[in-house]
Amino acid sequence: MASQAKGGARVALVAHDRLKPAMTVWVARHRATLTTCEVVATATTGSMVQRECPDVAVCTVLSGPLGGDQQIGALIAEGRIDALIFFVDPLTPMPHDVDVKALLRVALVHDVACAFSERSADFLVAGGALASRRS
Ligand SMILES: O=C(CO)COP(=O)(O)O
Questions:
Q1: Is the ipTM above a cut-off of 0.95?
Q2: What positions constitute the catalytic site (predicted)?
């Protein structure tokens, strides 16, 4: 994360399996913004994004079920993330549901700009949440 000096926000991308295709499409639509950002993602989400959008540099943490959601949460707690784009699947039970809830909770605790769906993520971009770091 810290190694890339870019002007845009520090953005975390996470998507549950059913929504990973939507995440890659979303990233492709917003690649002009995201190429200015420091992007971190859970492992599988990040590898799909990287494959479909190689111009968007992505650092990855572990896969969500293996602790990646907690790693993103720790980055948020340390003040190292400005925005969380998390495409949450509300229709599929998750073995790591407690980690998902913990990530959402810590994002709220630290008042990070959050979007949990494609349309709400569009609003974050339109509102400038990814244009710069929080002051
Ligand atoms: O499970 C996830 C979020 O809860 C996402 O993790 P992956 O991107 O590794 O699939």
A1: yes
A2: 69 (proton donor/acceptor)
Domain boundaries, the chain: 50-130
Cα(63) to centroid of ligand 1, in Å? Answer: 5
Residue 10 has φ and ψ, to the nearest 5°, of -95, 110
Q: CB–CB of 60/69 below 8 Å?
A: no
Is 110 annotated as contributing to ligand binding? no
**Residue located nearest, by CA, to atom 6 of ligand 1:** 64
Mean pLDDT split into 10-residue runs, the chain, 135 residues: 71 98 98 97 98 97 98 98 97 96 98 97 97 87
- For the annotated catalytic residues, the residue numbers are 69
Domain 50-130 sits in CATH 3.40.50.1380: yes
pLDDT of residue 42: 98
The response to whether residue 20 sits with its C-beta less than 6 Å from ligand 1 reads: no
